Amino acid sequence: MAHNCIVVNLDRCTGCYSCEITCKMENDVALGEYWNKMLQRGPFGEYPNMVRYPLPTMCQQCADAPCVHVCPTGASYRDGNNVVLIDREKCIGCKYCMMACPYGVRDWNKASQTVEKCTLCGHLTANGELPACVKSCSAGARFYGDLDDPNSDVSQELAKYDEADIHELPNVGNNPCTKYIMTSMHGEWMEGVE
Amino acid sequence: MEIQWSLVLFTAVAGCGTWASVGVAVDELRGLTERTNRLASAVALVLAVVGGIASVTHLSHPDRIMAVLGHPTPGIFLEALLIGLFILAEVVYLILLARGVSAGVRKAVAVAAAVIGVVFSFASGYSYMMEARPTWNTIALPFGYLGFAAASGLALYLLLAALKKERDEALKLAGIETVVGGVLAIASGLAFGFASGAAMGDSAAVFWVSLACGGVVPAVCGWLACSKPASTLALGVVAFAGGIAGSVAFRAVMWMVGTAVANYFGIAL
Amino acid sequence: MTQPTISRRSFVKSAAALGAACGLGVAVSDDLVHVDAAHADTGGDVKIVKTACRACIASCAVLAHVKNGRVIKIEGNPESPMSRGGLCAKGMAGIQALYHPNRNKYPMRRVGERGQNQWERITWDEAITEIATKLIEIDEKYGSECVAVSTGGGGNPHFSNVKRFGEAINTPNVWEPGCAQCYLPRMGASQLSNGMGKPNNLSFADSNGWDYYFTDSPVDSIVLWGTDPSNSSVATGGRALAELRAREKGLKTVVIDPRMTMDAAKADVWLPIRPGTDAALLMAWTKWIIDNEKYDKDFCTTWTNMPYLVNPETRLTLKPTECGLEGTEKDYVVWDPVENKPVVLEYPMNEGIEPPLFGSYEIDGKQYPTGGQLLKESVEEFTLAKAAEICWLDEGQIEKALEIYTTGQSGIMQGVAIDQYEQSQQCALGALNLEYLMGNVQRPGSMLQSFKLCPARDQIPNTPRFMKKEKILKRLGVQEHKGLLSWDMAFIPAVFKAMKDGDPYQIHAWIERSGNKHVMLGNATCLDEIVPNLDFICHVFMYPTAFSVLCADMLLPSAEWLETNLVIPQLNAVVIRQAVTHLFETVEEGLIWTQIVQKMAEMGNVHAQEAFTAEGTNGIPMYKNEYEKQKLHLDKLDMTWEEAAEKGVFEWCTEEEYRTYYVYESIDEATGKPKGFGTPSKKCEVYCESNTILGRTGFPWSQCFEEKALVLEPASKDYEPLCYYKEPAESPLTDDEYPLVLTEGRLPMYHHGTLRNIPYLREIYPVPEMWIHPDDAEKYGVEDGQWCTIASRRGETHGKARVTTAIAKGVIYQERFWAPELLDSDPERAYKVMNINVLTKNDEPYNPEYGTYTLRGFQVKVTPDAAAPEGVWTEPEQFEPWMPQPSDPTEEVFEYGA
């Protein structure tokens, strides 16, 4: 089974917000709504041992996606490629999936009154293109592909790094597919650190 | 996070109704009351329907609600199923009452309704147990939903019994049931309060108010009703008012402390 | 998912309300444009056009998707050698800028009083005729120098065009607020001390440091001195650093910046320097390198003027004739340590002689120090401890940074920070000297390179020798600040004095092309007193700004980058910007300039007529139309515009041909000797006597029609050949009233004063953050997220506090900003409410060479506000009125020409 996702190399990412606006332009996401949001983390610690890093966030394509599990109508579902998606036509707006998502990376579309989120730009990848945010990433920091395919862009990028430099958002059993690469260049990964 | 009032009202009102039916079932078994059960069942039915409607107001596309049937999963499907079955059971019970069918069948239906109601009150809290929200992810939460529903529902039964001027013995029983409800609310409430941290955090004030209103008040009133059946009406009013207010407050506290692992987009529900 | 569903709502009717007076409007639609409901998506093919962005100077290659004549999507073009398919938020916002409902759509003339914001639409012919008539009138009545012309870096400008326009209408008073405050000092110092040609200096964001765009560059470490490529050149410089860091060998970095930028966050050493003290740190580095003998002795001996003896009386290098040796005024003298005597230098170096870099030597009883000795003496006091004290740094961290810089191949990128206060030239010279000491010149992996020049050009050179001596001498303020002549520009405070007081003559008209002078000028409120004295002000831009409303008498709509053409050299490739659409009656700025000059010529202005002749203009006559313009840009590239545009991105030579190292060692066929550098000595001038000579004569930049080297009177004080440190005029060491030092910076989603009206960008960064250290926040009662008043001796403004350890203690950081949403209701507050440039200085002391005034490193105080400033939009949904209103293409206004 494929596990398609975005991998972000934070050693490369400059926190330029290109992915955020690119996503909005591509997917016509309204003002005040997000499928993809760039956050700034830190600084943590004392000079000279300080940690600051950018953190682009979006649907993490969890292997055990709680959103799919809790959705009462099947609006949150996995497609034939195992990608977690939302069928807007089936969404009753109960927001149960938004409660169940550990990261708050689902968007409430005020106009359609349904839940939406990153689709991995399925309309582009279906034609062999990359997701818009990956394609135009200013720093070449975003990668897309199947974690299970050793030849995919994500696997190739991850293979360059030690286990210790590969992170994920706090995992509470949902097993996010998205990985964040961050080495000692930045210092310590602080997501989930109290 | 923001309090979802539709869902608060749904679980508090419907839970109150389903636990009123417990009073009915207990009495069916003991056979002490004569006039209350019809009223209590009717009220329970109304409350279940009102609660169900409240839950629908939470939805942006209730027109698509039937899709729920096509995707049976725990959580919302189970709640909908249980509340539907409960309503059905209450309707059957009321019909049986009206037609004066044999007590055996009536008892069975009353007990079935009560069991469904109790499970519902637990399930309506169980739906919120999720890894994404560590403060909710404790079995004390559904027990809390059950406990406060018990206190408010049994207090309601006490009130209705007093209104119907039942015999002292019946009122005493209802009083004891209310004490049991109050104790359930206190025990489960405390368990949740400490498991989630609500008892100590920013929402502590509301939490302790919920416990006092929803647990202590019904327990004390129920206790007093046992010893002074003559004052049951007043005590029933206070017990019910405290019970329902506490139940609402308890659910509100759940939302207030319901922080996710992270909320990266910062979107309020 | 289908095509992005940009709402397609508006359709411009050609018969729109000619002549109706109206406000400029921040609302959805202004009264000039009728809007049809729901212009349906009627199908049609999507065409992908290769073009290039101009939301900032990086000009990243772009693929524009066009459907039914409308741009529906932009993405990065992976063929670009610099941005490699990346595109930043500014570029992505191109569609929102193009179809902004408040674009300037037609030429407009003010009706009613200035500042009342009442306008009528006029035709281009009326506009051009009116301007030409005014300029001729002023020329005849007062002299053509009484017209000032200005530009700026933001919003699809073309720098050299403005200068060419000034030359054509015969005014020397062309200026822009960048220049002495941005890039000129770094470029000028490099031209003076190594002369390797114009674009070759330490400014990475201005397309230097070309070797660093190739990941096989042997660079081990880079020092980012007051620069943040991740913010200032996101998809080019920022990307290049990302690629270098991601190599197997990685890249060590040192960041010197009061802010912990995203580049600082990745650095091995971050030095949060006190703004305004860079020279002290540069001098300490110099001393440490000399004391620890880390310099490249061979390079310093052969390729710098460090061993040259200096005459203390002239303060210039010693001439043979001054010490009894045979030789000419063009010769130099070094010391022969074996024979213990002075010898005339035989370029590049006398065989068998290894002259000392340091020391002072006696000739006929007089002491002559070497250039190296004077450098050493100049930095004598600057120990690391002293620098740490002055710069508010940790001594150990400074040393750690120096170890990185002096181990392996390194390079310094120097940012705009040092261009923004009195010591601009000093810091630029100081940093260059570090690179010369280390021999970081034209080596693989060094910042300073002399790679092969592209046969095409993005800037058509201006023609300073078209102007007569009499006019050149009227250029304001350059007698004292001769460095400005490098860019043929006037000194802003002198121009403003002339505008305000008529001293030495009254300026009557001002033609301005840039976003918002009220946001970009130091002490911007000074415009309030200046503007009433001007008879005519014309503003050329893509959308109205505070300057349009408060100052302009006429508004001309210029073109967005998606509407314009340009040839852009990028490394060994050319990237073509080509018009993807054309809206309303917008015109590319260059065409506006030439139309005015053509009209003046037609009306009989002789100077304007000469601008179109080769003889009058040193062989580069002014173009008359788009066709001629394209040919001038293509220059020696053997290709038509159509061919170039079809290719979009193409290589003009191979990577190997392009990356030419050690060019100074290659043999000059004419002399049979190494080519050396572009200075008079053909060496890197560590002892930069060219700077001193500039101050005394104007050489090498002073020129006019009559004289190739126009000798000017000396400046009031010598320009110093070496870097020195001077405590900022307003200093935290002595200021009790204004205790905090202010610095500015760059943001990845804005460029200069532009794009503050773009919904998706304002959503990300709606109002300026005022960074304050937690210790200072506590001291001044400031809470995170709270609005604050920041005050200086010039004025006060507001910012939203971000309490963070990402800023040095004692320092406040805020970026330039304005509020287009207030334009209609309160245009003055639109620029004052959160604009750091109402605090900055444009008064003395100035940098001697360029007249740089102080935008960073001055004193402010901070007090918390009770409430947010009224009317400023902060919530995403508030920006809805600015969402794009796509419209169909229109015909170009002026003839193409071929």
Automatic annotation (TrEMBL), chain A:
<feature type="domain" description="4Fe-4S ferredoxin-type">
    <location>
        <begin position="4"/>
        <end position="34"/>
    </location>
</feature>
<dbReference type="InterPro" id="IPR017900">
    <property type="entry name" value="4Fe4S_Fe_S_CS"/>
</dbReference>
<keyword id="KW-0479">Metal-binding</keyword>
<dbReference type="InterPro" id="IPR050954">
    <property type="entry name" value="ET_IronSulfur_Cluster-Binding"/>
</dbReference>
<dbReference type="GO" id="GO:0046872">
    <property type="term" value="F:metal ion binding"/>
</dbReference>
<dbReference type="Pfam" id="PF13247">
    <property type="entry name" value="Fer4_11"/>
</dbReference>
<dbReference type="InterPro" id="IPR017896">
    <property type="entry name" value="4Fe4S_Fe-S-bd"/>
</dbReference>
<feature type="domain" description="4Fe-4S ferredoxin-type">
    <location>
        <begin position="82"/>
        <end position="111"/>
    </location>
</feature>
<keyword id="KW-0408">Iron</keyword>
<feature type="domain" description="4Fe-4S ferredoxin-type">
    <location>
        <begin position="50"/>
        <end position="81"/>
    </location>
</feature>
<keyword id="KW-0411">Iron-sulfur</keyword>
<keyword id="KW-0004">4Fe-4S</keyword>
<protein>
    <submittedName>
        <fullName>4Fe-4S dicluster domain-containing protein</fullName>
    </submittedName>
</protein>
<dbReference type="Pfam" id="PF12800">
    <property type="entry name" value="Fer4_4"/>
</dbReference>
<dbReference type="GO" id="GO:0051539">
    <property type="term" value="F:4 iron, 4 sulfur cluster binding"/>
</dbReference>
Automatic annotation (TrEMBL), chain B:
<dbReference type="GO" id="GO:0005886">
    <property type="term" value="C:plasma membrane"/>
</dbReference>
<feature type="transmembrane region" description="Helical">
    <location>
        <begin position="6"/>
        <end position="26"/>
    </location>
</feature>
<dbReference type="GO" id="GO:0009390">
    <property type="term" value="C:dimethyl sulfoxide reductase complex"/>
</dbReference>
<feature type="transmembrane region" description="Helical">
    <location>
        <begin position="76"/>
        <end position="96"/>
    </location>
</feature>
<dbReference type="GO" id="GO:0009389">
    <property type="term" value="F:dimethyl sulfoxide reductase activity"/>
</dbReference>
<keyword id="KW-0812">Transmembrane</keyword>
<feature type="transmembrane region" description="Helical">
    <location>
        <begin position="141"/>
        <end position="163"/>
    </location>
</feature>
<feature type="transmembrane region" description="Helical">
    <location>
        <begin position="205"/>
        <end position="226"/>
    </location>
</feature>
<keyword id="KW-0472">Membrane</keyword>
<feature type="transmembrane region" description="Helical">
    <location>
        <begin position="38"/>
        <end position="56"/>
    </location>
</feature>
<feature type="transmembrane region" description="Helical">
    <location>
        <begin position="108"/>
        <end position="129"/>
    </location>
</feature>
<protein>
    <submittedName>
        <fullName>DMSO reductase</fullName>
    </submittedName>
</protein>
<dbReference type="InterPro" id="IPR007059">
    <property type="entry name" value="DmsC"/>
</dbReference>
<feature type="transmembrane region" description="Helical">
    <location>
        <begin position="233"/>
        <end position="257"/>
    </location>
</feature>
<feature type="transmembrane region" description="Helical">
    <location>
        <begin position="175"/>
        <end position="199"/>
    </location>
</feature>
<dbReference type="GO" id="GO:0019645">
    <property type="term" value="P:anaerobic electron transport chain"/>
</dbReference>
<dbReference type="Pfam" id="PF04976">
    <property type="entry name" value="DmsC"/>
</dbReference>
<keyword id="KW-1133">Transmembrane helix</keyword>
